[in-house]
Amino acid sequence: MPDQTRRRILVTGVGANPGLGLARSLLRLGHQVIAVDANPLAPGFFLDDASPYVIPQATDLDYPEAIVGLCQALAVDAIVAGIENDLPPLLHLRPLLEADGVRLWLPEAKSVHDCIDKARFHQVLTEHGIPTPRTWEPEDLGLVPAGVELVVKPRSGHGSQGVHMVTSLPQARVLCELVSGAIVQERIRGTEFTADCLVDRDGRASAILRRRDLVKAGCVAVSTTFEDQAVHDLVVDTLRAVRAAGLCCVQGFITDDARVTITEVNVRIAGGYALTEAAGADLVGQMVNGLFGLPVDHDLLTYRTGVFLTNYLETLHVGDVAELEIAAAPKGVTA
Q1: Contact assessment for residue 172 and residue 184, using Cβ atoms and an 8 Å cutoff
Q2: Is residue 293 situated within a structural domain?
Q3: What angle in degrees, to the nearest 10, is found between the helix axes of 118-127 and 229-241?
Q4: Does the structure show a pLDDT above 80 at 184?
Q5: Most buried residue, 14, 280, 306, 308, by most Cβ within 10 Å?
Q6: pLDDT in tens, 222-251
Q7: What mean pLDDT is reported for the chain?
Q8: Cα–Cα distance measured from residue 330 to residue 69, given in angstroms and rounded to the nearest whole number
Q9: How many helices (H) and strands (E) does the chain have?
Q10: Is 179 contained in some domain?
Q11: Residue 160 sits in which domain range?
């Protein structure tokens, strides 16, 4: 059973699908949600019963003070990150937050950075013999075999921002000059999938598989749950290789010749996880259990195959900016 205690849970990144969806699910479970984002017009601010607060961007020097101050002022019980940018500063703040009684469920720092940094991620998976796209640094483009389709992307990007598909090496060279911190990867074609995963504190993982049948701007528009033992086993091997913990998602491809390739692990909930819950898996409820030290019931993380989801853009709120009443996070002491 999910944790029935009403908790005060701070969710970051409520301007994007993962954080917005997570805030919605936590509210449905009866928890009090403190919704934070750097954008005062983030859609998660307009969810009924959420408490909205504007915070600095994760790279801002005032971010730590804002997060700690908000947690202290509101007696926050836990923080769950909805976007990768918040992970590095939260890792740095973890000892201070935990001393204040604020819970986080994140892997060790090396694991988080191995997943955020796509070059490091490639290295870790290669060392563990897990199939992943060939990857080159910009200075190594002379080693790219002829005729290989390529993807140019930021080394530490997220949400498909700054990702470019190219068909020639000259195109890749130009884009490496334009994309900040670029890396180049082999383009993989086939059936794209996401595995919504929860890894308990004993290392046991549950993975719910769904095809990304239609993807628009990096977000899944049509998705269907499926079962494939080879994919499941490789996902679990990947989670073990990166030493995953808690809530995360794994993405990859199944090629036409049935080979499975892993492309990334996100140390957060996926934007399309609503399908996983619609198919019967209590993903967020069991995450809350684990977050507060309760057992994760993997029997409640089973799911039905052949369940589909269609997504669309939704107008959540329309209003006058002059009437906005969204508070800035109070400042605290981070010493």
Answers
A1: yes
A2: yes
A3: 110
A4: yes
A5: 14
A6: 999 999 999 999 999 999 999 999 999 999
A7: 92
A8: 5
A9: 9, 15
A10: yes
A11: 134-186
Amino acid, single-letter form, for residue 132: T
What number is the average pLDDT over the span 264-285?
Answer: 96
CATH number at residue 212: 3.30.470.20
Other CB atoms within 10 A of residue 142 CB: 7
Residues 6+ apart with CB under 8 A from 222: 213, 214, 308, 309, 310, 311
Same domain, 241 and 322: no
* Residues 213 and 300 occupy one common structural domain: yes
What is the per-residue pLDDT across 186-223, written as a single tens digit (0 to 9) for each?
A: 999 999 999 999 999 999 999 999 999 998 877 888 99
Confidence bin at 335 (pLDDT 50/70/90) = very low
Total of domains in the chain: 3
Structure tokens at 60: 């801002």
* 71 and 22 fall within a common domain: yes
Tell whether 112 is covered by a domain.
no
Instruction: Name every residue whose Cβ is closer than 8 Å to that of residue 225 and which is 6 or more positions away in sequence.
Output: 208, 209, 210, 211, 275, 276, 279, 303, 304, 305, 306, 307, 308
Give me the helix-helix angle, 87-99 and 63-74, nearest 10°.
Answer: 40
Strands (E), the chain: 8-12, 32-37, 51-54, 78-80, 135-136, 150-154, 164-166, 182-186, 191-199, 205-216, 219-225, 246-254, 260-266, 308-310, 327-328
pLDDT band at 1 (very low <50, low <70, confident <90, very high): low
| Residue 86 Cα to chain centre, angstroms | 11
Closest by Cα among 202, 215, 193, 210 to 283: 210
As a whole number of angstroms, the distance between CA 188 and CA 263 comes to: 9
